[in-house]
Design brief:
About 25% of the residues lie in helices and about 45% in strands. The chain has 3 helices and 11 strands; from the N terminus they run ααββββββββαβββ.
Length: about 220
Amino acid sequence: MAEKMNQQVHPFAQVNKQPRSDEESGTLTSDQELKRKKRIKLAIYIAAFAVFQTIVILVFALTVMRVKTPKVRLGTDVTFQNFKTGTQASPSFDLSFTTQVGVKNSNFGPYKFDSTIATFMYEGVTVGQVIIPKGKAGLRSTKKVTVTANVNSNALQSTASLGSELGAGVLTLNSQAKLSGKVELMFVMKKKKSAEMNCTMTIEVSTKAVQSMNCE
């Protein structure tokens, strides 16, 4: 018992905790500051990319994805196969000519349209018709369709205005048509669009040539 009491109890050695030097503290502070700057720079890059992506999407939506209505026009290059007109006293006309119908597509995707009928009129009276076959106008391009029309004055009930025009040496015809079709974008999006043609053609009788062509 005495021997146990006489034994000296040695306390555990205390862990030697040396305070960090100024150099080590400075290194840690520098590393933390570097990491903080990297995080800030990364956040700036992410924000800039998000803004850039938003701008790209807006530009894409306002240009590429914006669907415009195609335009349909009667061509000015008209070739007459038959050209008969009466006189001011006995006015009449019987014409056969070949021309082109242009379908202008300004979209970033093709415009597919169904066949339709183009009507030629004099003073609001139908004097002839021609079929525009179905087709496709490519992206940002014009599809030209050649048609042959036959028009005559047989359906006119009154020829007073026609007599005045022929006396002045001209003949004015109006042509109208409506195309129904779809614009395809990115091969997945399809948008229905109808294109209308309304053209007024003035023909000079003496030269048998188109004097003017105005399309709305």
